[in-house]
Design goal:
612 residues, globular, 2 domains, two-stranded antiparallel sheet, Rossmann fold, 18 helices
Length: 612
């Protein structure tokens, strides 16, 4: 085992220095993200809480320019995120609006983030806007907001809710529909000052517009002709009069659905539209292309990476202590998977991973025709992913055992050689070592959670990149953590046995080279099948406009977009998983840390609501 040198006396200082370096990077990233979202102190950013009309508590993130006061009221804009998102998903828009003098409220819609889960959605009193309507009223009621200059905008599902609000409430002076579309209820003056912003390659465009070719058909539809004041409206042209509330525009750019929430072009369009409709203070206006949000988005990713990477030296420091030292299994990694077999096993695993959509559709058939899954497991999107993860790992466990029986019979391979057993002569676990492993895993997890929690409480900065990833847990989401954790732990016990045992390559000449080689191979084995799956979807989409996997109402698209999130998650956990396997010699700390982190990720970031 070439990690022995890491446990020699005198090497502790290096690990401590590396740990401090990652901590400084984390603190610096959180500080920079905070400075960007507050425009270097010119915008006050705060948490706000209020009750929805049906009694649910809503959490919002309020961006108030310091120049907005009771005596100098500013226009207000509500941003509502998409289906599988939270309030920080609107930060790109909210930051830029705040910098330009708009009081901006970005909310966690009901069932998202830290807002309450939805009540009985079959109740006729249930708020179909998931809190957006109440949020618009709350924003308009703030003493430093001019209630006569309020606009709403949203992305995807949030755009639909924003449109509904603007249709029903004549006091809403402007609406930006991003990644969605208006419908036949729109007229030439209802809703007021409406812009539609959508990607040419938006995967939901057919569902939203009811067309088969948005570029050729949308501007000629009855829906558009009813809403626009000219007979032959064109894309990317403005019609009507802002003062009269009749301004209309459809902006199309060559991007997909996910990109719309973080697109400079889309944000510039929305900023300029709200400027023309709501008239913010001229002295605060900045060129629409002067955008700082990418820095904040990069810093939240850096903070998360620094937090993850700091687990590596911290775990090593802990394992050097007398109490945790017995966790380490000082064995020689004798088994090494031959290159040809590695590709064979990785391909079989890839084929299992490609059962993603069939397995998810099977679950939803059970949900619809046999038993309501969400009565017990309320997070339907998580249910689908965890179901897939558990099923393919059950199959994987069967295949692993078959392979092991063959290898152990012919070459004397043991579970101990693979780091799955604590005993050389049989499969078994030492209760004392397992207890210490669990304790160490929990301590490392608490440290990581505390880092994120502190950044969120002090600077309103969570861990995310395009997607919501890790944030603090409400009491209800703690229950969700407990509910899903056993299933995710089972999956990672099998997966770590596969990647660190069956797929393990030969050690290199140093522990550094070994870590890089093993980590790269593990990520390649897990990410390549999903990447190829995405190529099947997006190469035709981006070259011809054809969507191979769309499904009824675009349901397949929802889950295929989740693959980006899954790929990022698997990459992150393999970085720390390989390290803990390498320095402990067994799979158990790796599997436990993987399960704790991924369950936290699901419990904190995923939606609690039906799939639309």
């Amino acid at each position: 085992m070439n990690t022995d040198q890491l446990f020699l006396r005198g090497s502790s200082l290096k690990a401590f220095i590396v740990f401090i370096a990652f901590q400084l990077a984390l603190i610096g990233a959180v500080f920079t993200a905070h400075r960007v979202q507050t425009d270097n102190g010119a915008v006050e950013v705060s948490n706000v809480y209020f009750l929805n009309e049906d009694g649910n508590r809503i959490r919002g993130k309020l961006f108030r320019p310091l120049s907005a006061t009771e005596k100098a009221k500013h226009p207000g804009v509500l941003f509502v995120h998409g289906y599988q998102n939270n309030r920080e998903s609107g930060d790109a828009y909210a930051i830029e609006l705040g910098r330009r003098g708009f009081v901006t409220l970005s909310i966690d819609a009901i069932g998202r983030g830290n807002s309450d889960p939805p009540h009985d959605m079959d109740d006729p009193r249930f708020d179909q806007t998931f809190g957006a309507r109440t949020s618009a009223k709350y924003l308009a009621s703030l003493p430093f907001v001019d209630a006569d200059r309020v606009g709403v905008m949203g992305h995807s599902m949030g755009a639909e809710y924003s449109y509904w609000i603007a249709l029903a409430d004549p006091s809403i002076r402007a609406v930006a529909i991003i990644g969605n579309a208006y419908d036949k209820r729109a007229t030439r003056d209802r809703p007021q000052n409406m812009i539609m912003i959508i990607g040419e390659f938006d995967e939901f465009r057919d569902r939203f517009t009811g067309t088969t070719n948005i570029m050729e058909q949308w501007m000629k539809t009855e829906t558009t002709l009813n809403a626009f004041p000219v007979a032959n409206p064109q894309f990317n042209a403005t019609y009507g009069d802002f003062a009269k509330g009749t301004a209309r525009r459809v902006f199309v750019t060559r991007i997909s659905h996910v990109q719309e929430s973080h697109s400079r072009a889309c944000i510039a369009e929305a900023l300029d539209w709200m400027r023309l409709a709501l008239n913010p203070p001229e002295q605060l206006w900045k060129d629409k292309d002067d955008q700082r949000w990418p820095v904040k988005e990069a810093m939240t990713l850096l903070a998360m990476l620094a937090g993850f990477l700091s687990l590596l030296p911290l775990g090593l420091i802990a394992l050097r202590t007398r109490f945790f030292r017995p966790i380490r299994q000082r064995q020689t990694f004798g088994w090494a998977c031959p290159d040809r077999q590695w590709w064979k096993f990785a391909a079989i695993n890839g084929a299992l991973m490609w059962l993603y959509l069939p397995l998810i559709m099977t679950l939803f058939a059970i949900h619809k025709f046999v038993v309501r899954v969400d009565k017990v497991f309320p997070m339907l999107l998580v249910d689908a992913i965890v179901w897939w993860f558990v099923i393919i790992n059950i199959v994987g466990l069967i295949l692993l055992r078959r392979w092991y029986r063959k290898e152990s019979a012919s070459g004397g391979l043991s579970w101990y050689d693979l780091g799955i057993s604590h005993f050389r002569d049989r499969w078994g676990l030492d209760p004392g070592r397992i207890g210490r492993t669990v304790l160490l895993g929990l301590l490392l997890f608490v440290y990581l959670y505390f880092c994120e929690f502190l950044g969120e409480k002090l600077a309103l900065v969570d861990y995310r990149f395009i997607y919501p990833l890790l944030s603090d847990l409400t009491p209800y989401r703690v229950l969700m953590f407990a509910l899903y954790f056993p299933f995710i732990l089972f999956g990672f016990l099998v997966l770590t046995s596969f990647v660190h045992g069956q797929l393990r390559r030969a050690e290199k000449s140093s522990w550094r080279q070994t870590y890089v080689s093993w980590t790269g191979r593990n990520i390649l084995a897990l990410i390549s099948p999903l990447f190829l799956f995405l190529l099947v979807q997006y190469v035709p989409l981006l070259t011809t406009g054809f969507i191979p996997f769309e499904g009824p109402g675009g349901v397949f698209v929802v889950f295929i977009i989740e693959l980006f999130f899954i790929m990022l998650t698997l990459t992150l956990v393999m970085i720390q998983s390989t390290w803990f396997y390498q320095i402990t010699g067994t799979i158990y700390l790796s599997a436990l840390m993987n399960a704790l982190i991924v369950t936290w990720l699901f419990a904190s970031s995923q939606v609690i609501a039906p799939i639309p």
